[in-house]
Amino acid sequence: ENAAARAHLGAVRLDLGEIEDGLADLETSVGQDPNSRTLALLATSYMRMGLLDKAMEAAQKLNHEHPDPALGPTLAGIIHFWNQDPDQARAAFQKARALDPDGPGAGLNLATLDFKEGNLEAARQVLVETVEKNPQNPRVLQRLGELEAVMERPEAKSRIVEWMALEPKNVEPKVLLAQLHLQAGEPQKALD
Questions:
Q1: 3-state SS string for 115-166
Q2: What is the Cα–Cα distance from 102 to 137, expressed in whole angstroms?
């Protein structure tokens, strides 16, 4: 039996609620072939089960053994975030950002952390920098547009229009833009 099949079986078992068997399958798969996808799945599965020490071990193994240098620190940051350790989460996300300065993941995670801590301007600044490096990433534009809407910044509408251009079939930016027009007393623009 190969590692990929075992990992797939583990994922299916987890989805079916067979937690112990699913984790055992993932652990066996990682023992056979510690690839980044299975290690990340194992770490996030441990995290969901509240097994944060095991999740961190998997993240550290991922950090040491795989070519995507930002994946391990990103996963470690998410685990620290779930464990309500914002200082460690921030350090891990900053490390991920240093290792992959052009990738959107670390910027989105840092902005989420800043937002949760109530530091909206810091979250906005991180997202602005992330958009500059990833202007075609709809998730980054979405988060920045939503944050600027919460902050009642005038740029919010233009960010949401940019998001709409990247995802013309997505209704979320259209609804958000309509809400902003209504809040601004522009009902005709909300209907357009």
A1: HHCCCHHHHHHHHHHHHHHCCCCHHHHHHHHHHHHHCCCCCHHHHHHHHHHH
A2: 12
Find tokens 């209907």 and name the residue.
191
CA separation for the pair 112, 98 (Å, rounded): 17
Q: For the segment 18-65, what is each residue's pLDDT rounded down to a tens digit?
A: 888 988 998 998 888 877 788 888 888 888 888 888 988 888 887 777
Q: How far apart are CA 89 and CA 95, in angstroms?
A: 10
Q: What is the distance between the alpha carbons of residues 71 and 158, in angstroms, rounded to a whole number? A: 32
SS (H, E, C) 28-90: HHHHHCCCHHHHHHHHHHHHHCCCHHHHHHHHHHHHHHCCCCCHHHHHHHHHHHHCCCHHHHH
Cα 14–chain centre separation:
21
Task: Return the structure tokens found at 50.
Answer: 């509240």
SS3 170: coil
Look up the pTM and report it: 0.72
